[in-house]
Amino acid sequence: MCNDYRLMVELASIIEEFEHLKIKIRFPEGRPNIEAREDIRITDTAPIVRSIEGERGAGELVQRRWSWPGPSKKPVYNFRSEGREFASNWALILSDGFYEFMWTLWRALTGGNDAIVRRREHNQYELVDETGVADPLVTSFATGLIGRGCSPHTVAAYLYDLRLFYRFLAETGLTLSSFRVAHSVELLAWLGAVPCPRARITSFPSAVRTTLSPTSINRAMAAISSFFDHLALADLAGVDRNPLATTQELARGGIARRRARGARRLKRVERIPRPMTREQVDRLLDVIDRPRDRAMILIMLQGGLRPGEVLNLHLDDIEYGRRRVTVRHRIDHPKGVRTKSRTERVVDVHEPEALAAISRYVLEERPRNAPTRHLFLVCGKGKHAYEALSYAALVKMFKRRCATAGLTEPWITPHALRHTHATWLWEGGMRELALQKRLGHVSFESTRTYTRVSDAVMLEEYRRALSRRCEEQADAEQE
Fold first, then answer.
1. pLDDT at res. 427
2. Which residue in 22, 268, 281, 454 is deepest, having the highest Cβ count within 10 Å?
3. For residues 386 and 327, is the Cβ–Cβ distance under 8 A?
4. Are the CB atoms for 160 and 125 separated by under 8 Å?
5. Is the overall model pTM greater than 0.90, yes or no?
6. Dihedral sign, CA of 180, 145, 115, 52?
């Protein structure tokens, strides 16, 4: 450890990181106001996470001086340098972007010796074992994903999938070089038995999924296949080819590839999106009086923008005269918010409420001398008023507004506004190709999900058939 460090992350980001570790953070002294600080010395008070005696999977976040007194009453920042070991009362010191882990505490919090995914500075990810050593092969793979422009969330998800794969190899006695395509069936069965930390309620209350979903398993298989591709290209771990790419797939291509992949993938449920009703939308808008919040809600509802696209809007992306919004691909948000699609698009917004709300927000609430061009800022009178709004802040605001409106359904999220927008346009008669361009979908299959919510052609055929049946029954009664 060092004798000073920096901490610039928000409290919401800290909580999110520990949720990835399956550790619940508690605040016995209340939620602290963590300030962004460039230089925290060993005698300064700073946030730490300490273990709870006799309890696993939880920790307490408090503000403490992160050094401790030594025999000479001077602060000590490297306890083991004096030849001593902690017996209890371990604590994690929160640092900028990653945490300097003390592995005995980690095992005390989680109750296991499994590897974990650790995020370092500049969105660098590692798969770290119980001794604190990062796996170099996975680190190389993660670096390659970042170099290809993958989202940090995608990289983290892939590394969590590789953590499961490493557990499978350890339990079966296999290695990376000895894994063959014949083992893929056994791997699928093993992944299907992995317990899910969160219970997934299905359409029937009695049907509760306690294991990984088919979507999660398919993503894990894709991550493992990409990992083997990387090892083969980089000539690492004695892997010269991807064992999940069969010989038929390599030799025949197209059709054989689809059949081979089908044998290593699970069929997943094709779920339909859940749009909000007119009543639910009206209830939500009735409780939003702050200009900034109302502007964000309306542009997602009437423009169909994703939450990440809204937070990445700049002032010059809004064209009030032409009544349109330009959605650009941006990855430079100071809070790490990224736009999902790499295809930039222009969205016409002819419903007057959204642009009127944005104009009111810019004129009345947004700080006029803010140094950033980002449209949506924290605002207010605090010292963070000029900062761009984070995704966690948007979600927190939306949940608070929904609770005030009495909308407690878990599926009502900021993204549900985009589903609502698309469903209303489809029911209004917009063609599938036009809807695909407006939403910025790369795959046509993503747009077709909205046709299953309400298909106008199918409804018309159903009404025609029903009317014909009623007429035949009336004719039969008259005879």
1. 83
2. 281
3. no
4. no
5. no
6. negative
- Contact residues for 290 (Cβ-Cβ < 8 A; gap 6+): 365
Q: Which of the 8 DSSP states describes residue 34? A: P
Same domain, 258 and 385: no
* Amino acid occupying residue 392: A
* Domain match, 108 and 119 both: no
Residues 231 and 311 in one domain: no
Q: Please, which residues have CB within 8 angstroms of residue 463's CB and are 6 or more apart in sequence? A: none
Type and span of the H or E element at 141: helix 136-147
Domain containing residue 129: 115-269
Length of the chain, in residues:
479
Q: Do 122 and 248 belong to one domain?
A: yes
Do 176 and 304 reside in the same domain of the chain?
no
Q: Are residues 387 and 431 in the same domain?
A: yes
- The phi, psi pair for 84, rounded to 5°, reads -115, 165
The Cα 430–Cα 56 span in angstroms is 53
Number of domains comprising the chain? 3
Q: For position 377, which CATH number holds?
A: 1.10.443.10
DSSP conformation class of 315: G
pLDDT at position 375, please? 96
Say how far apart CA 214 and CA 204 lie, in whole Å. 18
What pLDDT score does 213 carry?
84
* pLDDT in the model for residue 73: 57
Structural element, H or E, at residue 324: strand 324-327
Of the candidates 427, 314, 294, the residue with the CA atom closest to the CA atom of residue 360: 294
Specify which residues 118 forms β-bridges with. 126
Same domain? 205 vs 313: no
Owner of token pair 């761009």 = 388
Low-confidence residues in the chain, pLDDT < 70: 1-10, 20-21, 35-43, 66-115, 120-123, 130-131, 197-209, 246-264, 451-457
Domain harbouring 224, CATH code? 1.10.150.130
**pLDDT tens digits for range 189-240:** 999 888 876 555 444 444 456 788 888 899 999 999 999 999 998 888 888 8
pLDDT of residue 42: 59
Contacts of 204 by beta carbon, 8 Å cutoff, 6+ apart? none
Strand partners, 209: 200
Q: How far is CA 177 from the centre of its chain?
A: 32
